[in-house]
Task: structure prediction
Amino acid sequence: MKLTVNATADLTLPVAKDGKPGDRIEWDDDIKGFGLRLREGGKRVWVFQYKMRGRQRRMTLGSYPAMGAPKARERAETLHAEVKLGRDPAGDKAEDQARSGETFKACLDLYLRRRRAEKDDGKLRVATIGAIERHLDRNLKALHATRIDKVDRRAIALELGRITTDSGPVQANRTRSSLVKFLSWCAGEGFIDANPAMFTNKNPEQTRDRVLTDAELRKIWLAFGDGDYADILRLLTLTGQREREISELRFDEIDFDRALITLSPARTKNRRWHNIPLSGTALEILKKRQPFNGRALVFGTGQGGFSGWNKAKIKLDERAKVTGWRIHDLRRTAATRMAEIGIAPHIIESVLNHISGAKASVAGIYNRATYEPEKATALARWAEHLATIVAGRESNVAPLRRA
Result:
């Protein structure tokens, strides 16, 4: 029998010998394995049956008459062709159902739990976790409901394009970097077979090389004002450190007697202990800070360190009348000015906690010197030179002569 509209309408379930309705499948003559199952109570469902690796497999295609004969035949023909090609439709369906919970968000939550555990163990910086959450949890929220193995290159490229438009090319590139790492982890966990983010395009970035002039630095310093943001930027200028190393500074990281900040590997970019000698000016700034409500952090009022960078920067630019600069330029300016007053490059690198130049490669393996006295001298001389810049007078800090 060919299961057509008219033929299926006339089908009835015969009464069994014991007087009870039975359960029977009427098979189609044209499509092997395609049939209509008649069940007790009048329920009818379309089925497709086939053999795979010696085992009989059966799938339900839909209920009759909600799914009509033409639609059921079309679906059965597609499945028959798939079986001929060696596929296992029932197995694929079962796998789809089993993996329906493996969404981008579900995998991300697991990934973040693993990364937070690294933070708790001191293997990952707090700032790194914050960046991952910003990039994957907020920037890529549109992908959260998608099953992780269905997130393809096109979907990722569209989201990165949107982020480029909304937040700029740098934010899109940083989001892409976090996504590549996350999807590589997913591949390692067996959630996906390949990492589609690796083949998406990166935005070109302009290398930052701006060094503030003395006039610009003076205007900015005099416009700092008071409060957390002002003190953070003063310390960044005086020490040449990274933003979060100062904005998330803890009282237990400061030795006031020795005039020293000590950062653990969990708080530094290169995962190494880092000592920051404090000039007299920097020490006085920190001495004026008092613990607030038992907070361990020097700056800020919430759970983390200082926040509100963007609004504070806009107001500072309005007061200073200097635009087009970034907070990181203070670090570059400090390094450049220290070089100009004769501080040796390897001492400047130690101040900045860089692993390059004199301490890179094989040299760094054997050269374990931390240059603490030299760093203290360098930062003291830089603070003195900075004071003359802010005062608008000629510097009396003579450049050091190098042997």
